[in-house]
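Issue 218. Parser rejects a valid record. Input:
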Amino acid sequence: MRIETHQNFLESRTYDELHVGDSSELVRTLRAEDIQLFAIMSGDVNPAIGDLAFSKSGMFREVIAHGMWSASLISTVLGTQLPGPGTILFDQSLRFVRPVTLGDTITVMVTVKQMFAHNQHILFDCSCVNQEGMQVVQGTAEVLAPSEKVRTKRVDLPDITISDKYSRLQNLVARAKGLPPIDMAVVHPCDLESLKGALMAAEAGLIDPILIGPEPKIRGIADEYGLDLRQHRIVNVKHSHESAAMAVTLIRSGDAEALMKGSLHTDELMAEVVSRAAGLRTARRISHVFLMDVPTYPRPILITDAAINIAPTLEEKVHIIQNAIDLAHIIGIPEPKVAILSAVETINPKIQSTLDAAALCKMADRGQITGGLLDGPLAFDNAVSIDAARTKGISSAVAGRAEILVVPDLESGNMVAKQLEYLANALTAGIVLGAKVPIVLTSRADTAETRIASCVIATLIAHYNRNKVLETE
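Output the parser choked on:
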C-alpha cells in the first residue's frame, strides 16, 4: 500500500497500522542554495562540492551535492510521512551509487521490508533515484515506529535568503570578462581600503591604476599591509588638492579614461571635476548613481541622486534620470523601469516631489526623457513591492518592478542607499555620470568590495564610450 500524508498535516502510522510492502516517496530538485544551506548547517565546505572552479578539476567535473543531502531526504520521509511523527531512527546503512548534480530531480522512496514484533522496530528499504531513473543512493534504515497515533498541523518553515556578497561580486566582475583593463586615475589612495580596492580591481583585470598622491605615504601604507606596488604607476604630488587637479589633467590629456576617489573628501575632488576652466563638464548635469544588488530583490536597483545634487530642480532631475537610464542600457537593461519616489503615490500640491514626478512622466511621454519607462509619484513600497502596489490599487508596469529609483533629494536617497547596504547586505557600487569620464565615487568608509564593484561599472562605461567614439569617426 502506498501511503502519503495530507500536505497540511503530518500523521503517523503506528506499528500495528503498517504492513510489509507499504511505501512512501518524496520528490526534490537540487538547487545551488540547497548546497550552500547544507554547507552552512554542517560546516562541510569541501571545495570539491561547492566551488565551481575547484569542482571542474575534480573527479565529477561539476558541482555536486553533499552525499548526506540525499540521505537527509530519507530521514525526511521517515519522520514526516512513513511512519511519520514520533519515529525514532536506530540504524541506517547507505551506499552512494552516483553523485547528485545541480538540477537533478531526486525521487526518494522508503518501503517496509521487515517488521519485528518484539520491539516494534521496522526495517525499511531506502532508495533515491534521479530523473533518468538511475539510482543515486540505496540502503536500509531501522526505526522504532510511533507507539501512539499522532496527527499534527505541518509547521510552516521560515523563508531563508542566502546573502552571498562574494558570489554576487564575482557575478558582477564577470560582466567585464574579456574587456581589456582601463587606465584609471586613483586620486589620493592614502588609506588601506582605497589603496587595496584599486589593487584588487587591478588584480581582477578591470583597471590599470595610476596612483596619484604623496608617494612616501602611499608606499608606507603598502609596506605596512604587504601590498605590492611594483607593477603600478605612482604620480607623486604633495597633498590631496594637487592629487585631484593632477587626476583631471591626466583625463584631459588622454592618459586616463576614468577616475577613482581615494581618501580625500568628495567636495575636493568634485571641485576640480566641475571647474569651468579645466574640468570635465559636458552638456549633461553631473549626477551620482548607486547600483545595488539586494539579496531580497530580484533585479538590480539604481538609486539616484544620493551623493551629488542636494535638492535638484525639475530640470536637473531630467538630466539625473537620463544619466541613470543610459547607465541601465550599458549594464544590459534595455528599457529600465523608473520610479519617481515621494512619500505618497498621489499628486499633492503641497509636496513638491509629487508635482515633479507628474511633470517628469509627462516629459517622458513627450520624448524629453528617452529610453526608459517612467511612473510616479510612487512611495518606496509601491515601487519595489507588487503586493503593496496592488493593495493601493496601483496598476502600473513600473510599480513593484522598479529598476531605477529617483529620489526627491540627496538626504532621502543617501538614507535609502545606506540602509540597503548596512541592513539588507546589498552589494553596492557608486558611480558619477555626466562628466567626460566615469568617476568611481565611494565613501571613505566603503570596503574594497564596493570599490571593485564600482570599477566594474566604470570599466563598462569606459568601453562603451570607446565604442561610441569609434562609431562617430
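Fixed in the parser; the record now loads. Residues 165-472 form a domain with the Isopropylmalate Dehydrogenase fold (CATH 3.40.718.10).
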